[in-house]
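Cross-posting from the chemistry board since nobody answered there.

I work mostly on the small-molecule side, so proteins are not my area. We synthesized zinc ion and want a rough idea of how it might sit in this target. Sequence and SMILES are below. Is it possible to get a predicted 3D structure of the two together?
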Amino acid sequence: MAYSYRCGDYPGMESCPGSFKAETEAELWKHIELHASIAHQENPEKWSAEERQTMQNLIR
Ligand SMILES: [Zn+2]
């Protein structure tokens, strides 16, 4: 069992090639947050519940 997330699946992020896979969902979120902060200059601490839910729905 593995969890994966493609950044380009997020609305507006279509051009991003970022893709991550981890054994646990908790680790996957760390990859996503690190990627967002470095590649998109975002602050994951400021993501709203709605934004996190949208991302949650994209985790495969
Ligand atoms: Zn990205």
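Reply from a structural biologist on the board:
Welcome over. Reading the output above for you: The two ends are 10 Å apart (CA to CA). The longest helix spans residues 25-39. Happy to explain the token format if needed.
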